[in-house]
Q: What sequence folds into this?
């Protein structure tokens, strides 16, 4: 897999930023929080750091550019019974997706970003819509995937792409189709207090990010010489390659952050990818912090997650337990298989980060390997 450390673009700029105070990534910003105290303040003080962009409209949770959106919904955490249902759905659907691939394309490697789509979509949908029949769940899941796909070019566009009208229209059509099926599905959900628009946001965030995280997890596992303990594998994946590697806020007034003065109306980033490489947050000595080492979590001495892979404050991830549950279930499957990458994995930075392509083969390990 390509090393994140050698990636260019915004990722490279964040990793090579000075590690003191709030770092200006360019003259006049954006700024970057470079330690945990700064990051916590940015995420947990909405009076000074507002949530930018409109997730309902763009679905972009990975560094939107622009307008503020005061009054944004605060989502309730996914409750434990919904997490359990979502994880059970994932396990069933992952087994089914593998079997389907083996039956229809036995000679072709698995494509992680493709293979994970339906299992994750159905898992998150079954968690968010507890009363949905399998048929409704699958239909909603497919509509969310279509909307996520249509959002891709909108989010990735630094400038209006050629044929912007068509890009926008496709995004709007897929969003409206999703909201229509959700309106009907939500009629049967007396205990779910979400509008179709809010449910669409929740589902898109809860499907796109775990697909990328799961694919990174498989890529990391394929590079390990021996089976890896599943929970530690999930944390190492979210430390080295957190899909939501950059989150943004906009200053509502002039603020002082880490001794740096930032004017009003400027973008400030928090990067779990940067924080996950700080030796005060991660055990194992400063030397190997860019290496995947699941063993670093096994003595229980340091709390995993201090680098905020699920954010913090009022907009912290409401689906973190489901996200972790999916990753741990996937890592448990991975521990029972010998995985091999079929191609060099590239790190796509167009929408958060994702491993694209991430092709692999899998063979069951023999009992004595485990
Ligand atoms: C491994 C999986 C996941 C990771 C790494 C992840 C990461 C994150 C992060 C970092 C944020 C905060 C963004 C910010 O502060 O700007 C976030 C927000 C969010 N996540 Fe997750 N997430 C995951 C899974 C899920 C799942 C399964 C769901 C739904 C069931 C979900 C729903 C959301 C929503 C709705 C938000 C927006 C919260 C708000 O704006 O108030 N996520 N996620």
A:
């Amino acid at each position: 897999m390509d090393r994140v450390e050698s990636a260019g673009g915004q990722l490279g700029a964040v990793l090579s930023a000075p590690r003191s105070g709030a770092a200006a990534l360019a003259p006049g910003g954006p700024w970057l929080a470079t330690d945990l105290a700064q990051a916590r303040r940015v995420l947990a003080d909405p009076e000074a750091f507002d949530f930018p962009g409109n997730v309902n409209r763009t679905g972009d949770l990975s560094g939107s550019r622009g307008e503020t959106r005061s009054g944004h919904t605060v989502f309730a955490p996914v409750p434990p019974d919904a997490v359990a249902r979502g994880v059970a759905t994932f396990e069933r659907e992952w087994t089914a997706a593998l079997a389907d691939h083996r039956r229809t394309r036995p000679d072709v490697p698995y494509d992680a970003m493709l293979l994970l789509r339906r299992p994750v979509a159905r898992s998150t949908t079954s968690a968010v819509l507890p009363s949905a029949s399998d048929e409704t769940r699958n239909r909603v899941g497919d509509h969310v995937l279509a909307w996520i796909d249509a959002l891709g070019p909108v989010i990735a566009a630094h400038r209006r792409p050629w044929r912007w009208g068509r890009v926008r229209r496709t995004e709007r059509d897929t969003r409206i189709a999703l909201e229509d099926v959700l309106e009907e599905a939500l009629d049967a959900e007396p205990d779910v207090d979400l509008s179709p628009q809010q449910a669409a946001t929740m589902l898109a965030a809860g499907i796109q990010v775990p697909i990328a995280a799961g694919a990174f997890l498989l890529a990391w596992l394929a590079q390990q010489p021996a089976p890896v303990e599943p929970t530690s594998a999930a944390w190492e994946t979210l430390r080295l390659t957190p899909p939501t590697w950059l989150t943004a806020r906009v200053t509502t007034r002039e603020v002082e952050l880490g001794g740096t003065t930032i004017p009003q109306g400027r973008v400030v980033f928090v990067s779990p990818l940067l924080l996950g490489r700080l030796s005060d947050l991660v055990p194992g000595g400063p030397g190997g912090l860019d290496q995947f080492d699941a063993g670093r979590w096994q003595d229980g001495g340091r709390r995993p997650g201090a680098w905020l892979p699920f954010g913090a404050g009022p907009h912290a991830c409401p689906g973190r337990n489901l996200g972790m549950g999916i990753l741990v279930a996937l890592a448990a499957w991975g521990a029972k298989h010998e995985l091999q990458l079929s191609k060099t994995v590239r790190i796509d930075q167009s929408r958060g980060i994702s491993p694209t392509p991430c092709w692999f083969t899998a063979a069951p390990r023999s009992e004595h390997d485990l």
About this structure: Residues 4-369 form a domain with the Cytochrome p450 fold (CATH 1.10.630.10). The pocket of protoporphyrin IX containing FE is lined by residues 43, 55, 61, 74-75, 78, 124, 127-128, 201-202, 205-206, 209-210, 213, 238, 242-244, 247, 309-311, 315, 317-319, 322-323, 327 (CB under 6 Å). The chain has one domain: 4-369.
